[in-house]
Design goal:
- The chain is an alpha+beta fold and about 210 residues long.
- The protein folds into 2 domains: about 50 residues; about 160 residues, no CATH class.
- About 20% of the residues lie in helices and about 40% in strands.
- It has 3 helices and 11 strands.
- An 11-stranded antiparallel β-sheet has the order 4-3-7-8-9-10-11-1-2-5-6.
- Strand 7 and strand 8 form a beta hairpin.
- Helix 1 runs antiparallel to helix 3.
- The radius of gyration is 24 Å and the shape is globular.
- About 25% of the residues are buried.
Length: about 210
C-alpha cells in the first residue's frame, strides 16, 4: 500500500496537471436610461434595461480570438468555438428578451421573425470589438464594441415603444472578470491539501513519540 507521502505527491501531481483554467467573462452593464421617444413624443420608458455577458475560454482570452455566427433568413453560419456561454436580456418591457448561447447556434422556427448575429473579436487579453445582435421579431437590439470600456447600443421596437423608424439608443461599459473555478478542480485541490495535512500530522506524531 502506498505511503501517505506517496499519496500526497500523487495528489500534487494531479493538481499541477489537471486543474482546469478558469473561463473569462466579458460583462456589459448599462449606464443610464435608454434614450428615445414614444409615438406621442414622450421620453422612452426609463425602466428598460439591457444586459449582456460573453464567456470565453482562458486560451481564447490569452491568445486573442474571433467569433461569428448568423441564424435566421437562411443557412446558419456558426464559428463560436472560443465561446463557452452567452447571456443577453432586455427586461422591463413588453415581450422581454432572455436568450443564451444556444439561441445563437440554433436556426429559429420559419417565419418567426427571429434573426441573430455575433461578430466579435479581441486582441490577446483585450476588450471586445464588433457587435452582438438579436432580433426577437418584436425588438431588435444591437451591442456595439470598439475595444474600449465604452459600449454603445441601439434598439428598434414595433411593440408600441416608438423606436421603429428612429432607433432608441443606450450605452454602458464592458469589464473582464475570471469565472469561478469548476467544482471538480476545487475538489481536487482540497484533496491534495487534505493529503498534505495527513502527512504533516503523521510526521508530528512520530517526532513526539
Amino acid at each position: 500500500m502506498p505511503s501517505f507521502k506517496t499519496l500526497a505527491l500523487i495528489c500534487l501531481a494531479l493538481i499541477g496537471g489537471q486543474t482546469a483554467r478558469a473561463d473569462v467573462i466579458y460583462t456589459f452593464t448599462q449606464n443610464g436610461p435608454m434614450i428615445g421617444r414614444t409615438p406621442g413624443g414622450q421620453p422612452f420608458p426609463n425602466g428598460v434595461v439591457t444586459a449582456l455577458s460573453v464567456t470565453v475560454t482562458d486560451d481564447a482570452y490569452s491568445n486573442g480570438f474571433s467569433a461569428t455566427s448568423r441564424t435566421g433568413g437562411g443557412l446558419p453560419q456558426i464559428n463560436l468555438d472560443a465561446l463557452t456561454a452567452l447571456s443577453l436580456s432586455v427586461v422591463n418591457i413588453v415581450q422581454p428578451i432572455m436568450v443564451d448561447l444556444d439561441d445563437f447556434k440554433t436556426s429559429p422556427p420559419p417565419n418567426s421573425g427571429i434573426f441573430t448575429r455575433i461578430d466579435i473579436s479581441a486582441a490577446p487579453e483585450g476588450l471586445l470589438t464588433g457587435s452582438v445582435h438579436y432580433n426577437s421579431g418584436n425588438h431588435d437590439v444591437t451591442f456595439n464594441f470598439d475595444g474600449t470600456p465604452t459600449v454603445r447600443g441601439i434598439m428598434n421596437s414595433d411593440a408600441g415603444y416608438g423606436c421603429f423608424f428612429s432607433p432608441c439608443t443606450f450605452k454602458g461599459s464592458q469589464r473582464v472578470e475570471v469565472a469561478v473555478p469548476e467544482p471538480a478542480s476545487l475538489a481536487l485541490f482540497g484533496l491534495g491539501l487534505g493529503a498534505l495535512g495527513v502527512v504533516r500530522l503523521r510526521r508530528g506524531r512520530k517526532h513526539s513519540a
